[in-house]
C-alpha cells in the first residue's frame, strides 16, 4: 500500500527537506535505455525522487547528454539496447542527423593523379605574417617565401634519381638510343643549393660514350665550338648521328633522346628548349621539369675528366664543367662559415623582382661570389645585404669571364643600358638597407621592417 505524502507546512520548500532524508537519485531522461529497461514498480519511485529534487533547490541541474546528442557529437552508432529518441519541444537541441561509418572516412582528393601515390606536395603559406624583430622577420621570410621546403628538395632529388634509372633502361633496351657511359652529373642552381622557391626545373648531364672519336676546336659565329669526328675504321656508338664527313651532329642526338623519352613511366611531355641545348622533360607526378643535356666526357692525362662537351644549338658542341662551379660555390660558402648560400638566395629573390632588368641566374650567382670573395665573414643577413648592394656595381660594370675558363664572358648579350638600370636599382637598395639598419639601431623595428618591405616587396613580413 503506497505511503501517504507528508503534509505541507508554511515553511519554504527548501527548509522542509529533512536532513535525514536519503539522497535523491538523479532524474533519468525519458526514452533512454535505462528508463526503458526498468520495471513499472521502480518507475513510480523515480517519479517521487524527481519531485523531491525539484523542491530541494531552485538551481536547475545540467541535463544529461541524450543518446541522440552522443550520436551527433561522436558520430558512433547506437548500441543494441539504445533507441533513437526525438527531443521534446521544450528541448533546445536540434534533431541528430543520421551518421554512418562511411561518412567518417575522408574522401580522397578528386584531382590526385592515379600514378602518384605519394602525399601532395606542401605549398608555401600565402597568409600575411607579422614580426616584431628583424631576426624573426628574416627567418620567416626565408622559410615561407624564399627557400625551398625541405620535403620539396627531397622529392626533387628522388625524382631526379628515378628519371636517370629510366633513361639507363632505355639505353639498354633500344640499340639506336645513344650509349651511356658512367653516371649522370647534376648541375644548375638546384644542385648548388641556391635554388629559390618555386622549384621549376632540375638540370642534369647524361654522359654519352664518346670513344673512338676525335675532338677539334673551331670557330662558329665568333664563338669557340668543337667538332666531334668519328675515327676511321672504327665502330663508334655515335656513328648513327654522324654526317658524311663523320662529324657527330649534337642536334640529332637531342632529337633521338627526346623521341625515346615517351617510353618513360609517368611521361607527360618532352621538347627541346629554345636554345636547342637540352631536352625539356616533364613527369606527370611532379610540377617541375627536367633539362636533360647529353654530354661527352673529355679526358686529359691519366684518364681524368677535364670538361664535358654539350650541344651548342647548331649541331656543334661547346665545353663546360659544372663540377668547377660546384667547387667554387662550396669554397666561397666555407669562407663565410656556411652563411653565403642563404644570403645568395635572398639576393636572387631580389634579382627576380620585376622593378628592373633581371640578370641571368648563373651570371648573378657569379657576381655574388666575386663580391664576397674579399669580404669579412658574414655575421647577419642585414650586414651581408648592405655589403653586397654597396660593392657589387664594381663587378657589374666590368666584364665577367667564365669562372671555368671554358667559354666566353657571362655578360655577353647584356647591354650597357641594362647594366646601368641594374646599377641604379642597386644604389637605391643600398640606401634603403642603410635606413633599415639605422632604424633598428634606434630601437625602431617597425620603421626598419617597413624599409625591408620596400627592398623585398609585400611578401616580407609586416610589423605586428
What would your notes on this structure say?
The chain has 464 residues and is α+β, with helices and mostly antiparallel strands. The chain contains 13 helices and eleven strands. Among the domains are: 171 residues, Beta Polymerase, domain 2 (2-Layer Sandwich); 138 residues, Poly(a)-polymerase, middle domain (Orthogonal Bundle), CATH 1.10.1410. Strands 2, 3, 6, 7, 8, 9 and 10 form a seven-stranded mixed β-sheet that branches. A two-stranded parallel sheet has the order 1-11. A hairpin with a 6-residue loop joins β6 and β7. α10 packs across α11, α11 runs antiparallel to α12 and α12 runs antiparallel to α13. The termini are far apart.
Distance between the termini: 77 Å
CATH topology of the domain at 150-320: Beta Polymerase, domain 2
Question: Count of DSSP E strands?
Answer: 11
User: Main beta sheet, described?
Assistant: 7 strands, mixed
The residue-averaged pLDDT reads 80
Low-confidence stretches: 1-60, 67-119
Give the % helix.
25-40%
* Gross morphology: elongated
What is the level 1 CATH name of the domain at 150-320? Alpha Beta
The CATH architecture category of the domain at 150-320 equals: 2-Layer Sandwich
Q: How much β-strand is present in the residues?
A: 5-15%
Q: Roughly how many Å is the radius of gyration?
A: 37 Å
The helix-and-strand class reads alpha+beta
Succession of helices and strands: HHHHEHHEEEEHEEEEEHHHHHHE
Number of helices: 13
Amino acid at each position: 500500500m503506497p505511503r501517504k505524502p507528508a503534509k505541507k507546512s508554511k515553511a519554504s520548500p527548501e527548509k522542509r527537506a529533512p536532513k535525514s532524508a536519503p539522497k535523491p537519485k538523479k532524474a533519468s531522461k525519458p526514452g533512454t535505455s535505462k528508463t526503458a529497461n526498468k520495471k513499472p514498480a521502480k518507475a513510480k519511485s523515480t517519479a517521487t525522487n524527481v519531485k523531491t529534487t525539484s523542491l530541494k533547490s531552485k538551481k536547475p541541474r545540467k541535463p544529461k547528454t541524450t543518446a541522440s546528442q552522443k550520436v551527433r557529437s561522436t558520430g558512433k552508432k547506437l548500441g543494441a539496447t539504445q533507441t533513437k529518441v526525438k527531443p521534446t519541444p521544450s528541448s533546445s537541441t536540434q534533431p541528430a542527423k543520421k551518421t554512418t561509418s562511411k561518412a567518417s572516412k575522408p574522401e580522397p582528393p578528386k584531382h590526385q593523379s592515379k600514378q602518384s601515390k605519394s602525399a601532395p606536395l606542401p605549398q608555401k603559406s600565402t597568409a600575411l605574417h607579422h614580426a616584431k624583430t628583424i631576426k624573426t622577420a628574416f627567418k620567416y621570410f626565408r622559410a615561407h617565401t624564399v627557400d625551398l621546403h625541405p620535403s620539396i628538395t627531397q622529392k626533387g632529388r628522388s625524382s631526379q634519381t628515378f628519371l636517370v634509372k629510366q633513361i639507363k633502361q632505355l639505353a639498354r633496351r633500344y640499340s639506336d638510343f645513344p650509349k651511356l657511359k658512367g653516371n649522370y652529373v647534376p648541375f644548375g642552381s638546384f644542385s648548388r643549393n641556391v635554388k629559390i622557391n618555386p622549384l621549376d626545373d632540375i638540370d642534369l648531364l647524361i654522359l654519352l660514350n664518346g670513344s673512338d672519336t676525335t675532338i677539334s676546336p673551331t670557330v662558329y659565329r665568333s664563338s669557340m665550338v668543337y667538332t666531334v669526328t668519328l675515327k676511321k675504321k672504327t665502330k663508334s656508338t655515335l656513328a648513327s648521328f654522324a654526317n658524311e664527313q663523320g662529324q657527330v651532329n649534337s642536334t640529332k642526338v637531342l632529337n633521338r633522346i627526346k623521341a625515346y623519352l615517351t617510353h618513360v613511366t609517368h611521361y607527360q611531355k618532352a621538347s627541346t628548349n629554345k636554345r636547342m641545348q637540352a631536352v625539356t622533360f616533364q613527369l606527370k607526378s611532379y610540377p617541375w621539369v627536367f633539362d636533360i643535356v647529353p654530354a661527352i666526357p673529355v679526358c686529359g692525362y691519366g684518364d681524368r675528366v677535364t670538361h664535358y662537351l654539350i650541344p651548342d644549338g647548331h649541331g656543334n658542341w661547346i665545353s663546360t664543367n659544372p663540377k668547377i662551379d660546384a667547387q667554387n660555390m662550396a669554397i666561397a660558402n666555407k669562407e663565410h662559415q656556411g652563411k653565403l648560400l642563404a644570403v645568395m638566395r635572398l639576393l636572387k629573390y631580389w634579382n627576380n623582382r620585376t622593378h628592373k632588368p633581371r640578370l641571368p641566374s648563373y651570371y648573378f650567382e657569379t657576381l655574388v661570389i666575386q663580391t664576397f670573395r674579399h669580404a669579412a665573414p658574414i655575421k647577419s643577413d642585414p650586414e651581408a645585404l648592405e655589403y653586397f648592394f654597396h660593392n657589387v656595381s664594381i663587378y657589374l660594370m666590368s666584364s665577367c669571364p667564365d669562372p671555368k675558363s671554358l667559354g666566353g664572358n657571362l655578360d655577353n648579350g647584356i647591354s650597357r643600358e641594362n647594366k646601368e638600370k641594374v646599377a641604379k636599382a642597386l644604389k637605391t637598395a643600398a640606401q634603403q638597407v642603410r635606413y633599415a639598419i639605422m632604424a633598428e639601431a634606434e630601437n625602431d623595428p617597425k620603421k626598419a621592417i617597413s624599409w625591408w618591405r620596400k627592398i623585398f616587396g609585400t611578401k616580407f613580413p609586416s610589423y605586428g
